[in-house]
Amino acid sequence: MVSHYDCDGISSAIIANIFLDEIDKSFEQVFLDELTEEKIKDVLEKHDQPVVFFTDIGSGQRDVVSSEIGDERTVLIADHHEVADEGEVDFHVNPMLINNGEEIDGGEEISGAGVTFLVADSVLDDSSKLLPYALVGATGDIQKKDNCFKGPNRDFLEKAEEKDMIEVKNGLRLYGRSSKSLVKALKYTTEPYLEGITENESGTVQFLRNTGIELRDDDGWRSLSDLSEEEEKRIINGLIKRGYEGVENLLGTVYVLNNGWEIQEFSSLLNACGKLEKPKKALDICVNEEYDKAWDIKKEYGRKISKYLSILERKLDDDTFVEKTFFGTLIKAGNRIDPNIIGTVTTIATKSGIVEGPVVVGMAEKEEDKLKISSRVVEEYEEEVVLNELMEDACEEVGGKGGGHRMAAGGKIPKDERDRFIKIIKDSLKQLKE
Ligand SMILES: [Mn+2]
């Protein structure tokens, strides 16, 4: 088993692991952040298995996969990414192979975990307990748009609901629904700004007490997910009564998995495991259903991010680290920020205003000779700057690789090309110079 190491890849691996266990096949699991000739060679050398099963990775490198693996082993790919032009493998399941992806969009309607689910579902009599992971993977790959699933993801949701694997309900959409105490989740709500509650702990406690909600139970602080439906309604009514503007934006569909976690938060948790290079830990937690162990990871990840943000804040005046330029900010983190986490740090630093936009580009050393690049643009400049195109072109020009989304993109480049890369970015963004 070879799986991508992000949330979707981990979800696809969970599905494949449970599936293979159920049909009594032994296997070894490998997680990779990318599939190169070298990495495939390494996997083949270390794992003498007759079948190589790729999930959420492999389609884009099917040429390399087919030439490296050869005829002695059977190759199965379950993926949703763009497919390489060349290469033949034994079994290849990917929506992009059907009419060039025109019927089912691998970008928005099914994830690597979803495709892996379909493979398992075609063999198992009852695959319902795998359904939540098809949705967690899709959520991790930002396929849930405007809080809705579509295409095959929608079918997975309906089936999962039918089988009581997920609960879809109307409720308060606070970040930290299952991972923060109710007081913290409410206090940290900034959109909309809740006068007397936002950033005001005693105000929050007072408000909740007035609604008659118990803030603690025998297990400690209660989270929103610990509340009964009736209690949640009391909070909503309390907020409405106070007449906050925009409070309706906090109400909406909430997806609660049968393990008690809200889907968005569970997918961030799996993502964190990947970034901390602990995808196997996530796999074990889910396969063995030991969700309590997830808290340590959540905490470790939170600690790492705050450590990096404080390094960044301390270095704001050091222009070898934080370069303020006409298009925004360059964070030249060197080896001070983990390359797996530079993306998250760049996002938070941009959104919170620690560094200034409109564009923020973070760079951190990866391996000895590579730089991981991560870029963000603020919403007001959404029309003017298209980051995935910019990153794809700029990275390629210096012998690297880049891509991503319009407002968040990144890539990897050779370390000694850093200055030329910066110059290319500056040239391409020169329209932002007044
Ligand atoms: Mn994916």
Broad structural category: alpha/beta
Mean pLDDT: 93
Low-confidence stretches: none
Small molecules bound in the structure, each named once = manganese (II) ion
Q: Which strand-content bin applies to the residues?
A: 15-25%
Rg calculated over all Cα atoms: 23 Å
Query: How many domains?
Result: 3
Helix content: 25-40%
Q: Can you count the helices?
A: 15
Report the CATH architecture of the largest domain.
Alpha-Beta Complex
Main sheet?
A: 6 strands, mixed
- The top level CATH class name of the largest domain: Alpha Beta
Shape: globular
Q: Would you give an account of this structure?
A:
The chain is α/β, with parallel strands linked by helices. The protein has three domains: about 1-165, Alpha-Beta Complex (inorganic pyrophosphatase (n-terminal core)), CATH 3.90.1640.30; about 170-300, no CATH class; about 315-430, Roll (Diaminopimelate Epimerase, Chain A, domain 1), CATH 3.10.310. It has 15 helices and 15 strands. Strand 7 (about 215) and strand 8 form a beta hairpin. The structure holds manganese (II) ion.
Task: Give a quick precis of the structure.
This protein has 434 residues and is of the alpha/beta class. Helices cover 39% and strands 17% of the residues.
Summary keywords:
434 residues; six-stranded mixed sheet; 39% helix
Topology, element by element:
Elements: E1 2-4, H1 7-22, E2 30-32, H2 37-46, E3 51-55, H3 62-69, E4 74-78, E5 91-93, H4 112-121, H5 131-140, H6 152-162, E6 166-172, H7 182-187, H8 201-210, E7 216-217, E8 220-221, H9 229-241, E9 251-257, H10 263-275, H11 279-287, H12 294-314, E10 322-325, E11 328-332, H13 342-351, E12 359-366, E13 370-377, H14 387-397, E14 401-404, E15 408-414, H15 418-428
Parallel strand pairs: 1-2, 1-3, 3-4, 4-5, 11-12
Antiparallel strand pairs: 6-9, 7-8, 10-11, 12-13, 13-15, 14-15
Manganese (II) ion binds next to loops.
